């Protein structure tokens, strides 16, 4: 919340979404958010693809979304239990499609221009630092996505 408030004035006119633990978005809300945005940020627990339906995502066409930032792969005891229960009902292939590289490929196939994602499990503090660096470089300094990723890699 602090990071969003800090960079609030640098955002474009519209900033829509779900913040905090207000509620879990429905599939229709995910679709509406992804198809109406030029940039999409997911900052949440576990795998992004564990929150959306695979069949629904692969059928989407979202070329207006030029950038997707997935700061996911954060694990807590509660989120691990939720994902473990969910994974019991999925095939090994389905679970494999939720990994970062596969998720990036699927989003690319739907028309997303650039995807920034974490590659391994992390914690909320590290993702908050990544988000701060992303916003600072993209919004304050006006760097390109590629330049910003180079800063993150250092």
TrEMBL record:
The protein's name: CFA46 protein
Signal peptide residues on this chain, from the entry's feature table: none
Record-level GO BP terms: axoneme assembly; cilium movement involved in cell motility
Originating gene: Cfap46
Protein's organism: Nesospiza acunhae
